[in-house]
Amino acid sequence: MARTIAIVEDDSDIRGLLDFKLRAAGYETSLARDGVSAIGVIRKAQPDLILLDIGLPGGDGFVILDRLREFDALATIPVVVISARAEPARERMELEGVAAFIEKPFDIVKLLQTVESILAAR
Q1: What does pTM read for this prediction?
Q2: Whose CA is closest to 82, among 20, 11, 24, 25?
């Protein structure tokens, strides 16, 4: 059974690239383009991993991280933050307990390696 990855990203080009590359690598994906729809998409998909942008309309990534903790079924899903906001986001991500922080622009090969490494450790 394929692992599912939720992609929460407002930029349609980046969201499309991630969706395409992850599906090509054998993953199933669920997509959300803003903070408003993210929790609903994640609750429905029950993904194995979440790729989360910080700069989102309708509630930024930090709000999403807080909301995930409100649901027992979602609180333990590993989150990889992908953001152009390197600092202070990276420091806050360490405090939030995210699995990894990847700065935009990113190397898709390294991102896929990060995803594979986190999922293999679960």
Answers
A1: 0.93
A2: 11
